């Protein structure tokens, strides 16, 4: 049995000091700190477009809707992920179709996804797990060959790169999370950056 140790958040004096003026200025949500954070993320990830969402599941839902996923569609989702990946697909009215992952890396591969594709498949959802990325070149090649959209669940991949490109900016849409157990935490909150492009 594989034992995976979960990430524990670290909050120090810098974080406390940074929060103080939120109370002093009464900006408890959104506001200038959110705008500054979004700007820094855009620079870090070199994302063409970006916006915030309340949480990772809603970010994925919005991303799926943005690429036209809805009733009658199927989306291939790895079977090793947080339930929000498949829940977001369900929320659009589409159906998640599960595929296996590599047992060593825990990442989904193009081969695994190809086995789950049916005539109803409209999108692939690679999930970058534990600060690593899926092998995206073969996944993108598969998507191009089958004329499928790609939405990256990059909730655990802030500042993680694949061949020089930031995870979540390779597919049609990428979604990140800043929940308490993620690489960077804001307590809650998510981001949906994207380089939206039409492939069909």
Present the secondary structure layout.
Elements: H1 13-25, H2 31-45, E1 52-53, H3 56-66, E2 74-78, H4 83-91, E3 95-99, H5 110-116, E4 121-124, H6 136-146, E5 149-153, E6 161-162, E7 165-166, E8 173-177, E9 190-191
Parallel strand pairs: 2-3, 2-4, 4-5, 5-8
Antiparallel strand pairs: 1-9, 6-7, 8-9
Helix pairs in contact: 3-4, 5-6
| Biggest sheet statistics | 7 strands, mixed
**Average pLDDT level:** 87
Tell me the number of strands.
9
What gap, in angstroms, lies between the N and C termini? 42 Å
Give me the side-by-side strand order of the main sheet.
1-9-8-5-4-2-3
Structural class: alpha/beta
What fraction strand?
A: 15-25%
Roughly how many Å is the radius of gyration?
A: 17 Å
Specify the overall morphology.
globular
- The number of helical runs is 6
Q: Which consecutive residue ranges, at least 5 long each, have pLDDT under 50?
A: 196-200
Summarize the amount of helix as a percent range.
25-40%
Please trace the helix and strand order, writing H or E for each element. HHEHEHEHEHEEEEE
Oligomerization state? single chain
Write a structural description.
The protein has helices spanning 13-25, 31-45, 56-66, 83-91, 110-116, 136-146, and strands spanning 52-53, 74-78, 95-99, 121-124, 149-153, 161-162, 165-166, 173-177, 190-191. The relative contact order is 0.18. The chain is globular, with a radius of gyration of 17 Å. The chain has 200 residues and is α/β, with parallel strands linked by helices. The strands form two sheets. Strands 1-9-8-5-4-2-3 form a seven-stranded mixed beta sheet, sandwiched between helices. Strands 6-7 form a two-stranded antiparallel sheet.
């Amino acid at each position: 049995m594989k034992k995976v140790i979960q990430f524990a958040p670290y909050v120090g004096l810098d974080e406390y000091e940074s929060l103080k003026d939120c109370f002093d200025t009464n900006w408890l949500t959104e506001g200038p700190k959110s705008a500054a954070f979004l700007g820094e993320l855009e620079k870090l990830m070199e994302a063409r477009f970006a916006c915030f969402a309340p949480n990772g599941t809603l970010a994925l839902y919005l991303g799926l809707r943005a690429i036209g996923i809805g009733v009658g569609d199927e989306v291939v989702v790895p079977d090793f992920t947080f339930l929000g990946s498949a829940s977001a697909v369900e929320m659009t009215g589409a159906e998640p179709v599960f595929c296996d992952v590599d047992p060593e890396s825990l990442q989904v591969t193009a081969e695994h996804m190809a086995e789950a594709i049916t005539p109803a498949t409209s999108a692939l959802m690679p999930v970058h797990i534990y600060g690593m990325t899926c092998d995206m070149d073969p996944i993108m090649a598969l998507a191009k060959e089958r004329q499928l959209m790609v939405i990256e669940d990059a909730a655990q991949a802030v500042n993680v790169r694949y061949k020089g490109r930031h995870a979540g900016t390779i597919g049609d849409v990428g979604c990140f999370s800043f929940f308490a157990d993620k690489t960077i935490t804001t307590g809650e909150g998510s981001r949906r950056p994207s380089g939206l492009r039409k492939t069909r």
